[in-house]
Amino acid sequence: MATLSTAPVAEIPEGASTLAPLRRRSRSLAHELVESIGARIQGQLLKPGDKLPTESEIMKSYGVSRTVVREAISRLQAGGLVETRHGIGTFVLLPRPSQGGFGIDPSDIATAVDVMAVLELRISLETESAGLAAQRRTEAQLAEMRAALDAFEANVGGEGDAISPDLRFHMAIANATGNRYFADIMSHLGATLIPRARINSSRVAHEDLPQYLRRVNREHEEIYSAIARHDAESARAAMRIHLTNSRERLRRAQEAAQAATPAT
After folding, report:
1. Which of 76, 127, 145, 241 has its CA 20 to 30 A from that of 133?
2. CB 221, CB 149: distance < 8 Å
């Protein structure tokens, strides 16, 4: 992570010239907020070291909920655009070095087709990751998975940030493989790993958000239990089920939308 200047940071003033209410489009509000803030960062209206407005100020300026703001900030963090210093605020980072052409930019994945493509990649990558983690994990790594799941469970009501602990859980599994390349790829993908960072997954599943998150949490617990007892085959199966469920829900929703679209 780039080191910010030690000089006093410039806090962005609240106002319509910096923040504008979001337009209601078909894409998620969180994605719109990421685009809006990201564009200001790319356009140097928000410079490295600048402090973003508070959650409450962004909510008021954009007319969105706290959940939307937190999802957007999580995605900006995963994209390497900002960092949050607990108790201080969220700050714009220096641009990170080019990744050379490899990778998927979190800000570029907005369609169901792209989300499903990432899920297909994850099925092949994380199924084996879970199996290796079951064989190689340490007690400390298992404790990190447990902490991530506890943080996720604390937010299943739908008001808190469930994306960060979700990502943390999957990253902990990658780290437990003992193979740094699993963790490198997962880290590079960042928030693109979590479908609801870009689409309304609960709406796709025809469930309210808390119900959807509880079901995701149960799937996570199955994966964790298999890893905890060193059962590699069960860990692979649980991970495959977890990710395949997401892919199939999205596939069915996409087919239904296409069927409902009149031919031109």
Report:
1. 76
2. yes
